[in-house]
Amino acid sequence: MKKSVLFGALTVTGLVAGAAQAATLDDVKERGELNCGVVTGLAGFGAPDANGVWEGFDVAVCRAVAAAVLGDPTAVNFVPTTGQTRFTALASGEIDMLARNTTWTFSRDTDLKFDFAGVNYYDGQGFIVPTALGVSSAKDLDGATVCIQTGTTTELNLADFFRNNNISYEPVPVETNAEAQQQYLAGACDAYTTDASGLAATRATFENPGEHVILPEIISKEPLGPLVRHGDNEWGDIVRWTLNALIAAEEFGVTSANVNELAAAPGTNPEVNRLLGTEGELGAMIGLENEWAKNAIAAGGNYGEIFEKNIGENTPIGLARGLNAQWTNGGLIYAPPFR
Amino acid sequence: MSDTHAQTVSFVRESMIPQSEPPAGNRGAVLWMRENLFSGWFNIITTLISLYVIWWALSHTMPWALRGIWDASSLSECREIRDATLPEGTSAACWAVLTDRWQQLMFGFYPRELYWRPVLSLIIFLAAIAPVLFPHTPRKALALTAVSPFVMFWLLWGGSVWFPVSVALGFVLGWAAWRALAPLAGTLIASIVAAALPIIYWLYTAGPLARELEQAVSLSIEYVPSQDFGGFMLSFIIGIAGIILSLPLGILLALGRQSDLFIINKISVGFIEIIRGVPLIVWLFTASLLLNYFLPPGTNFDLMLRVIIMVTLFAAAYIAEVVRGGLAALPKGQYEGADSLGLSYWQSMRLIILPQALKISIPGIVNTFIGLFKDTTLVVFIGLLDPIGLSNAIRASTAWNGIYWELFVFIGLLFFTCCFSMSRYSLYLEKKLQRGHK
Amino acid sequence: MTTTSDAPKAGFRPSQLIYDTRYRSLTIQVIAFIALMLGLSWLVSNTIANLSALGKDFDFGFLGQRAGYDINQRLIEYDSASSHGRAALVGILNTLLIAVLGCALATVVGVLAGVLRLSKNWLVAKLMAVYVEGFRNIPVLLWILLVFALMTEATPQPRDFREGGDASMILGDTIAITNRGVFIPAPFWGAGAGILLAVFLVSLVAIFFWRRYAHRTQEQTGRILPIGWGTLGLLIVPTAVAFLALGMTSGRVTQPVLATGATEGMTLTDYAASQQTINACAVPFSTESLNLRRLMRSQEIRFNYVAVEDAAGALAALEAGNCNVLSLPASVDLATVPAGAVALSDTIRRGMPVEFERPVLGGFNFEGGLQLRNSLIALWLALSLYTGAFIAENVRGGILSVSKGQTEAAYALGIKPSRTMRLVILPQALRVIIPPMISQYLNLTKNSSLAIAVGYMDVRSTLGGITINQTGKELEGMLLLGLFYLVTSLVISSAMNLYNASVKLKER
């Protein structure tokens, strides 16, 4: 059924694609590919490499879902979306899920009619300033010029923060992270504000990272996670529990290295057995094969592995786990029981 | 007066002295320079200012560009090489990003082993427009032109050959219906049937037919989804598809705008003015954000196709104005001559007016194409990876984060090469047409 | 008409609708109309179905909701508490601003480049050819990005203006060119500004009459009066004289500076040293506020600015302790000043009808003055240079379209080349130049929608960008946006067509 999208549109037969909104799972299975909305490019979270293969923390979620549903982590169509086009792309059914560092907010969940499948990264908005400026707190930024990316929640947070603290600032809106970086390094703005993870990633690529400091204030909560259309609960469950499977796998020590071995025969931990499908029928309950979670974990490893590979401390991005550590290590990453 | 004067002069040279060279200051390079660069104080000042501007621009860019580093795998490696080989504080371009990523800038994520397909399509396209642009090629080559869009479509996207074939069949069907009906039921009914029949065929028969044929005789090449299209290839596809598809609609709109029929005229004028009055970027956002609202619920198709549809409508309005100019430029006698021969409206248009009007419109159409080709860069705002979009994606990879000028210089040069050669061609055509008229 | 037989009066048959040319056009139109209506109703019904499926409604109520985001470049009052509608209005004004500025500069650049491209100086002609071809053949989006990046990289940051930095302000420390924009002195109107304005207007009228008189004299007697110098003189001299005279006569009024918790005879510097923070009460945009700020800036005192409504409000704020420094017009009776406030020994002398507030380097950035933001300048330059290249080609074509005999005839009459161009060639070329120029103006206005690339908040970025993104009202937002551009385009083209009609060759 590969030909159909374009040709179908040409012949207008494909225009009436039927109940596309009703059962995303069937659509994905029939298509043989998952349409996953991603960023057009954000270091560590999603960008194509020299061979055009998409890589990154958010991209890994897409791959895990594709592996769980289709058994093939490469069966993903990555659809680059901008801050402005992402929600329409999801609402219109152009993409099946959106994994594009999107903040879970009340209005997006309710008014825009989406369902967030969980949180894969707990972020917050921070500031980066040159060390030479001698600023140690965001509250010292009275009168400063601040670069922000438009089309995101950050500009609202920024306006609220400065308004609450009754200090003045000059916003300089920029379209992309790369643009903002160029402006900031040239000194056209005193500070650059975006999600703290983005700041760390950006700072890591500077010629002299030591000359810039990330201020301690985190002025907002930014729980980032994959989202799906409201109304298709079966599909929402699949994305939600795929994410949970990755998180639980880390908790139980299931890694991409040992997942095949553990899935070969039932082990001692019944929850791991249920997760990997050697015991119980969890897969059937969400309309998937029983080794769905095994496939998802084998695709790119568990949550911790994905984190370390894409944005962890050994990568140029160099993010510490912090809030994103497992709950057992004092973080907020917590998967409900597989039962 | 010279006669009388000559007789009063006591000495007249009788043999001509040989022509001598003008003095050194009045010939060759010196003369040229004096006349063209230093002919007066004002000229001298402007020359000096110009020289300064040129020197300033070159001295700021050339060392940077020429010192460029071509062999590195990331920006930080570039910086290391620069620090190791060049004196402290000198800047050097990092052209290595181009050697690393030029395929992406040209073809997007199109599979590497299939690069021959877009290249071949481009060659086919150039061959197909040759009969249109150069009048000396045999008229039979126009048949190739008619077939080429389907071949190019098939080459670019791949899949089964039967799909483009069955779509093309629709046009054949329409044409056959018109030929069969026109003598029997008159042109009006024939045209309506010829328009309706292919649409019904496309809606209900084309898909299944193609599927049947594919099952019977499987003829397909590897399918490449639209998401893999990018870079200059994307710009070319959108630009070329926009212009080719918009030509028929544009001509109809131009005729509609010239028409005496009130409603037809007003519809055409309204369409043209609305499209031209609103920036392309707003139309692109409409394609990206709103088109799904306007189509039956549950309908959904590829963003690239939506963009091509929108760009087609956009270009049609501009083409219509160009063609209208061509129609208006024809002498009134041509219209009257056609009428006096007793030709019907469509006959006179097809045989007399349009061939001439389109011929004079070609430079304008080429210029519209150049404009459209440049404007394809705007698709970056709706998330398609054109060259500028890809430059953002490349800069987001950890290896090349922070690189800036090199990519833009490369993209700018490529655009310049394409557009400049096309504009030279349209200029040449314009001159030729002017000669032809005189 | 008696010789020809009348048309057969066989009544109307339905087949005539198809075969009779008189009725066929009607049939075609009716069919086209029905098809159009069917198409439109299909689109509308789809839209309604889709909207209800998504649970969205079609209403413009979001325009009244709180916008929540800030806009740096604004011509009217706006902050994050204002509504989306007001944000859209800010964007509309910004779009119009860039369109007007761009069209003006593009015309200047285009005419200059077009004329210079025909220059006899080979180097200049080639340089202009490079400019024209370079800008015409590279996408405008790329130019906008390049100009913006070039400006941020090539100009100094505000930090470089500090001690030890290598940048300095130009024109006697009045203008600062930074990579955040150009800071220029901002005018403030003082006493006598009305008179000054009146003098200026009168001199404008005088210029009009002078030019008319000069032209008439030339037509009648052939004597050429110095129009240019006369205009320049009339433009500058009376206003300058009035400015100086007003400055002399209105007197140097002394404006006291009051402070709470100060002792008699204290200077402002001493007072500032004794206080933790300085909160200055002033009425925004008044001369008093300007003077006070200027005084404090000149003594390098950091202060917070507390805006108040009027002099009475300032006194109340002082009494309530909202501020500790205050400056009042000299006309205010010092007896009304609340207890505890003491006049400092520093006073402010004023009296000029127009005073300029100079930008001064503050904590992070320049403060005061007018800031022409880099995004505005970059967009302005890029759009003007891009459109200018197209206009240059129109101008060149127009000039070349004027027969060479006209130039030769003018030279034969002994008219100077510059005057030949101005009086003989350009008026004739204008008729060829104007129509394509109109479409270039339209293009520039439409291209201004690329402002988002440099973060200039035009209507596409406010209404069509952030507002749509925050409220999810794509349909309504895009509809309004499209309407705005459509109306603007129609207005521009009809206005320019009117002008075109007035310069067109009057055919009789």
From TrEMBL, chain A:
Domain Solute-binding protein family 3/N-terminal: 33-262
Any one Gene Ontology BP term: amino acid transport
Species whose genome carries this gene: Limimaricola soesokkakensis
Keywords: Signal, Transport
Keyword Transcription among record annotations: no
Transport recorded as keyword: yes
A Pfam family assignment: SBP_bac_3
Signal peptide limits: 1-22
Name used for this protein in its record: General L-amino acid-binding periplasmic protein AapJ
Family: Belongs to the bacterial solute-binding protein 3 family.
